[in-house]
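Instructor's aside before we start: the two examples that follow are unrelated to each other. I chose them only because their records fit on one page, so don't look for a connection. First example below.
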Amino acid sequence: MLRLTKTYLLTLFCFVSITVSAQLPQSDGEQQRYSVQIEMPRGYISGISVMQREGELVKGVVVNEFGVTAFAFTYNVVTGKVRLDNVIAMLDKWYIRRVLRKDMGQVMLCLQRGDTVYENTRRKIKYQFVSQKFGGFD
């Protein structure tokens, strides 16, 4: 019985530590880095995302493996709204921007809950943000 309780607590601790690491930055100036994969029916975008908390805003950018900025965004934690700032030319269409803006709002809500994956079943788009340790530069 004691061994089962210890195993259960260890499993629960591991699960909680995984979900806590996938959250949005909580305090001003805090940065969080994620490995990102966005899968669409006709292709995918993979790379990294860096997010930084500034008051009630979380500012972020998604950069592919070649260092090209796919898009930059600002998420308001209070209102739950996302503003897309710098979008790469192939994604810079009004209908793509609308889907991307709404989906990024849902991704941010998932990250606040500790989830790492959001799937837009209607458009068949899967967003995966896996937290990485961010050492920063000295």
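Example two begins here.
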Amino acid sequence: MLSRILVLCVSILFAFQIQAEPVENASTIRLGSEYNFAKKAILAEFGEPLVSQENSISYSNLKYKGFQFNSVSFNFKNDKLIEMRFFINTPNKLKANQYVKKLADMMAKNYSLSMDLSDNSYFYKGGVSPKGIGHLFTISAAKIQGEWKAELRYGPL
């Protein structure tokens, strides 16, 4: 009987921890928002995009959370915002990892993070997905089209 009460208490505390985790996404822009609503929020926050299509809205050289991102894309599927990707171009893997660490330090002010190390690159996961299962965002370094990048990615849903 005592073990059941203990399990119940731990479960309640765990639930409160999950509830306390902010589920805010990129400022006022929420994953899962309908296209028209999300587009209005994106334009209000970031101004006119470089490209605006039915399945994505893209920017270049955008400042967000104190970082200058070389490219940003808001991706849609079935009229819903499913993913937000923020990239910083770097000259090499070392510099990409340095940006990943700085991004993680910034996000850790508002979210709990977990970290993995793979191929001498950091990979962070944090926040709680709006669906309540999985992580809200990841932060990683990768070589994309021959160029090292640090990426902050919300989603996908």
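Helices lie at 2-20, 35-46, 93-107.
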